[in-house]
Structure formats: C-alpha cells, structure tokens
Amino acid sequence: MPIKRKRLQLRKCGGCGSVGHNRATCPEATKTIIAPAKPVYKGVGFFVHHVSSSPTNSAHIVNLRKPTNTAWDKVDAVIPDSKKDAYVFAPTPAARPAPQPLYAVMPTRKTVDLPPPPPKVRTNHLASLNKSVNQAGQRVEDILSGLSGVGKKVTGAIFSKQMALAIVVLGLVALLPGPVRSYYQDFKLANDSVVRDSTAGFMALQNSTAALLRADLGSAQTGVNSALNSFAEAVATVDGKYKVLINIANSIPILKNEVANRQNILLAGQEIALGNTYLIKGLNDSISASTTPINRAQIITTHLRAALPNYESAVKHMNTISADSLPLEYQASYDEYTKLFTAIVSDFKKIVEMGDAAQEIFGGKGLRRYLVVFQNESELRPTGGFAGSFAVMTVKDGQLESFKVTPGGSYDLQGQLDVSVEPPAPLLLLNKRWEFQDSNWFPHFPASAEKMLWFYQHSRNQTADGVIAINSSVLERLLAVMGPVTEPNRKLTITADNAINTIRKVVETGPEKEANKPKQIIADLAAQFLASFKNLKPTDVLPLIASAKDALEQKEIQMYVTDWRAEQTITDFGFGGNLITTQPDQDYLMVVNTNIQGQKTDSSIKQHIAHQAEITADGSVLDTVIITREHIGLGGEKMYGSTNIDYLRIYVPEGSTLVSAGGFVWPDESAFRSPAPWTKKDSFLTSVEKVRLTDPETGTRVTDEFGKTAFGNWVITEPGQTSQIYFTYRLPQKIDLTNTNQSLKESLLSSNQTASYRLVMQRQSGCDSTFESQIITPPNWSPAWTEGKDIVLAGNGMTITNQPLERDQYFGLVFTNK
C-alpha cells in the first residue's frame, strides 16, 4: 500500500498573525511586536520576495557551451560597453592561423622551439666500446711517445694515480690489442654475470615483497633467501678472480658506468633484502605475541621503522640504475618493480607516521567512543549524503568493544534533544529547528563533525571522541572484495550489485518500518560484516587496503577526532574532509549540493561544471561558473522520480565579488517553516557563516566561511528536465603581469616577462560530476608551461578538457609576454 505524503500545513505567521507566510518570510519581520505576550523578534531575512528583474542568461553560457572542438584561435576577450553585462567572447574579424604546438619546457632546453630529441637507438655496445678503447689507446701511445723527461714530470704532477693506471691500461690497448680485447671480453663476462645474478635477486625480492604485503610470511622469507643466494653469487664474482680486472675497468671512464650500475643493483638488492628481513621478523613477532591488537600493531610499526632506512637507501640506488644495462628479459619487470617499490616505501613512511595517531584513535591510550555516521549519496548533503543512520562504536587497545546501530536511525535522537536552535535558513524547508540528521550542513567535514557531536551530547547526555562518516558506496566496495553476505533473518543475499537497492527496499517497505525500526537491517548487516572481518582471508587483505585507500582519497570515508594531534595527522594524510587551504594567489572552486526535500533524486542527476577564468590586461581575473543539472529520472517513480530541490553553493577565494548570476528557481515561500518563538540562534552557525549580503536582483546569498566566499541559491529540476545556472564573479587578487621572477625565466629560458595562474578544484563527497575549464590569457601573452592532466594548449590560453571529477585536482598555467 503506497504511503501517503502528509500535506504541508500553513500556519499563521507568529509575527503579524497573517495567513500565507511565516516568520521566516514575514514582511513585518524587522518590526517590534506590540503585543506584550510575544517577544521582540526578527525574521530570518534570507529570502528575496521582489526580484527587480527575472533572471537572464549570461552571454557566457552561449560561448562556454559551444562544441568542444571550437578552435581557440577564433576566440578573443572583448570588454562590453555596459558595466552591468558579463564579459562576452566573440570571433575575431579575421581568423588567425592555428597556433604552433608548444613543446613541454624543460630546465635544460635552450628555447621552446627546439625540435624533440631523436629517438633512442640500441647499439652494439661491444663493437662501439672496442672502437672507443682502440682510439683512446692510440691517443695515449702518441702522447707517451712525445714526452721528454721534463714532460714526464709534469705529467706525473697533473694526472692522479687513478688516471695513471688508466693510461697504463690504455697503453696496453695500443701495444697489445689482442690480449686487451681478451681482458675486455673477460670483464664483460664478469659484469654480465654480476648483473644477471643481482637482477635475479631483484626478481626474487619482487616476489618476496608481494608475499609480504599479503601476509604470506613463508613465501616472503623464501624470496629473501633466494635473493640473498643470488647476491652471494654476485659478490663472489666481484671478490674472485675478476676483482682486479673490475677495479681496473672502474678507472676507465668508458667502462665506469657499467661498473657503477652493477654496484648499485647489488647494493639496492641487499638493502631491500635487509629491510624485508626486519619486517618479516616484526610480523612473525606480532603473530606470536599474546597481547592486544594495538600492541601487535606497535610491534609491526617498530620493525617497519627499523626497516625504512634500508628501503630508502635502496630507492636511492635504484634511481641511479638504467634499465638498459640489465638483461633484456628483466628490463620491463625491473621498471615495474621500481615504481611499485617506490610507492610502497612512501606508504610505509605514512604508516610509521600514523603510528602515534593510531595509538590514540584505536584506543591504545584508553577507551574511545566514536559516532559512525552512514551517509546516503542519493540524497546529497554537503559532506556526502543524508545522515539517516548512525552507530556508536567503542574501541580499546585496538579491539572492538561494541558496535551498536540505532534501529530507528538518526531520528531516534529527536525526542531526546534538550536544546532548540534555529537551523541554517534553507533547512527551514524541512524543519523549524535544527536536529542531528541535518547537522552535516558544512562542506568542511571537521565543522559538521563538531556539530554532530554537539547534537549527540545534547540528545544522549554522552560525549564521543570523534566521527567517522561512511558513504553507502563503501558497502559496495567491501562486498566486491569480500564477496556476498547472507542475512539469515530475512533470507537475503547482499552482493555488490544489489546492496543499495535491497537495503533501501527493506528500510522503506519492510515490517520493521511499522515498528519504528527501519534501520534494523543495517544493525543486522553490521554484525555480519564484523564477523566476516574476523575471518578475513590473507589474500583479501591487500585488495581491501587498496579499496580503502581509494575510498579515503575520494572522500567516501572521512574522519574527525577530538584529539588535536591525531586530527592533525588525519588532516595531513588528506582523510579529514577539510576544505583545502589555498594560497592568496590561487583560484579555487568547490560546488556543493544540498538536497532539501528532493527525496533520493540525486542518483538521477547528471551534473556538469564548466569553469572559465579570463585574465584581463590589468591582471584582474573574471571567473564564470556554469552548472548544468540534468534529471534523468522517470516522473512518478517513488523516491527517484520526484522533483530535485537543491540549495547549491559554490565556494571561491575569500573576498570574491559577485558580478552577475542567474537561472535560479526558488521553492514556494509558503512551504518554509517558522522557528518557534523560544528557538535560539545557534552560536556555532553564526561564528562559521558570516553573511556578507543577499544580492537584491537574484537572491544569491553571499557568505564568508572557512577562509572562502560562498555564493548560494536554489536550483529546482523536474524529471526529464535540465537546469542551468551561472555565477560570474571577480577574484579579489590580481595576477602580477610585471613579474620579473628570475627562477621562472631561467626555467623557461626566456627573457620575457612571466606570470602564472593556478586553480584548485575540490570535489564534494558523494557527488558525481564532470568538469571542464578554459583559462584565457591577457592580450599579447601566450602559454609556456602547464600543470595538470588532460590539458590542451592554444595561442591565448588553455582548455582543461571534459573529465570526471573523482578527486581534488590542481592545475597551473605559466604564460609569457610575446
């Protein structure tokens, strides 16, 4: 039986007593109430009732939405006659020739117009070296034959002993070409033997490292032993009958590189083997130790800390080795292993750095209590999704003491809340007071987490030590690694493909809903997952770590703890969901969507963000952001086919000035609730959101938050329809076009003036968007160097091509005066 949606009740205004509006929108809001029984009040002062003109589309929309193959050389920036209009981009009277392709500028390149280096060609090393040796020998013979007694003394003073030895050897080359050729061949055989044994040791270490990461200690130790045997063979060759010959070769410049490669391969392999031995011992000791998990983790961290100097030394040696010097069959594997091992060492360093924080977070210093908040991205909120469910987790000494999911979800805290504060103004569309389920209002996760902890304390009279927010997509990740999970009470099999829909169906239509326990299935599944974690296969550990790493990087998991040292570590690792702190000369953009009474329709929304930055002749920067939201849901479909109601904010550099905006649609003012007379202003909200103004023409709200400026307004999109809104604003800073930065000039090998533009593009957790941008340089300036992926250069700027916005991204452009 379909659930009837309650009709919204229209109450009389608590201020003037009229019907049809409320205190939030009362035109008399700023006046004092005369009746002595009622308190003096002021309205929220957020909504604009009389817009001077209907929103119109900027000319930017026409230009920015052109097909992506539009040539840059046909686009110029021109200043309009009216100051009220946005900048317009129009074709030039005469099309210019297509710009020449720009080479990537390297510090060693003389000019940007140099042709690319010729391709590498494999040569016959034996033939070329023989030729070089013979030529050098002939030259030494000529020199020696012309020396007089005085000349010999001078020669002895100039040449070192090492060079003298080289001269003697090269003299032998000239006098005895047959024997020397034999010596050289013997050297090559010895060197090849050392390289082959060392490289074989490397391959054994590759297997050892892979086994170590999947906790297969037996195979890891076998790999180390095999590597050590190979290295022993190499050392025996070096210290055996070829020792003198190799030492002589080391004094000859032509052969010195080959000897150095051999030495570095051997040294790097020995360092890795020693490091792996430390780590294997640590893992064995932690397994055999009858202690708590946190102490076992500490044992591993201690041994890992001891192994790191060896690993770091190995990386230094590996970076000096040319893969071309290795046997052909090993070259590809060596390159792959070098990249992998370098990344592993970086991760190991992070694990060691996390050691102290882990002690605090996982209860190594006493019992710790956390709120684990489950967010549904189908109903977007600033930190990732609607916080409809949560659990209280306690840990001590690395062991999970309890994990309790509230069957009724976040709404269970409503009746226990002992304070009444006004919500952020847009949330009056939902509720007349602010509550836990709507507390993740701030895109800066630490701020939302603090508010969650505050509501929890005022509802349960209990504090917590932090918040862990988990998006529903993490469930799909876990199931993809661990396999299906069976829920016996309901005879359900939950897989990565059906998890979200299956749980949603039970929550919305299951029998527990009638008992006011709609989230009971989450509690039951949590128990199943905890049991699965205890029985996790060793082969699943590495894939699970890799999946967790991706989830953290994409903000599907965000963490906040009240201990400031541990919180700083979380922030440094990028796991805290913080708004990125930018430099004064950087541009910044983050688009934040908040679904308010739009049901679960964000799963039916396709969002595209188009950004444009035009740098004018005086160095000022005019940005335009166009956001297109397409609703692909079917009208009438429950939850997913409803109207999408989105309060959208863009966060830009602090101090940016709004020039124009448009395309917005507002909810009916009569739908907004009115805060109760006893409801207080929330001091935390007031301290974070510093309202600058509300634009009288568009109703755009301008606030300063977290070191950024935010522009906010409403976007309402019906099923099958597309909404498009835009903001045009001027950055507070100017780009210095008189820059005489010597380091930039030297790196570009140019005497021209140089300037730079940098953009930080931050992603909202849970929001799938695509992104593109255009950066237009001032007249008579051209790009010289870029940073970022999927960039196309042109004569007057660059394009960041259309791409999924899956992670925070950084872009840069250096341009020079023509």
Give a brief outline of the structure.
About 40% of the residues lie in helices and about 20% in strands. The chain has 19 helices and 24 strands.
- Which runs of at least 5 residues are low in confidence (pLDDT < 50)? 1-11, 30-188, 241-256
Instruction: Tell me how many strands there are.
Output: 24
Instruction: Count up the domains.
Output: 3
Distance between the termini: 72 Å
What's the helix count?
Answer: 19
Q: What about the largest sheet? A: 8 strands, mixed
Mean pLDDT: 74
Helix content, binned percent: 25-40%
Strand order of the largest sheet: 15-16-17-13-10-19-24-21
Structural class, judged by helices and strands? alpha+beta
What does it look like?
- With 818 residues, the protein is an alpha+beta fold.
- It has 3 domains: 176-361, no CATH class; 368-572; 586-817, no CATH class.
- The strands form 5 sheets. It has an 8-stranded mixed sheet.
- The radius of gyration is 34 Å and the shape is globular.
Helices and strands in order, then pairings?
Blueprint: H1 59-64, E1 76-78, E2 88-90, H2 125-145, H3 149-158, H4 161-175, H5 177-213, H6 217-239, H7 243-250, H8 253-288, H9 293-318, H10 328-361, E3 368-376, E4 386-396, E5 399-405, H11 445-460, E6 466-471, H12 473-482, E7 485-487, E8 492-494, H13 499-509, H14 511-514, H15 520-534, H16 538-553, E9 557-561, H17 564-572, E10 586-595, E11 605-615, E12 620-631, E13 644-653, E14 657-662, H18 683-688, E15 690-694, E16 701-705, E17 708-717, E18 722-734, H19 742-748, E19 754-762, E20 769-776, E21 781-787, E22 791-794, E23 797-804, E24 809-817
Parallel strand pairs: 3-6, 10-19, 11-20
Antiparallel strand pairs: 1-2, 3-4, 4-5, 6-9, 7-8, 10-13, 11-12, 12-18, 13-17, 14-18, 15-16, 16-17, 19-24, 20-23, 21-24, 22-23
Helix pairs in contact: 2-4, 4-5, 5-6, 5-8, 5-10, 6-8, 8-9, 9-10, 10-17, 12-16
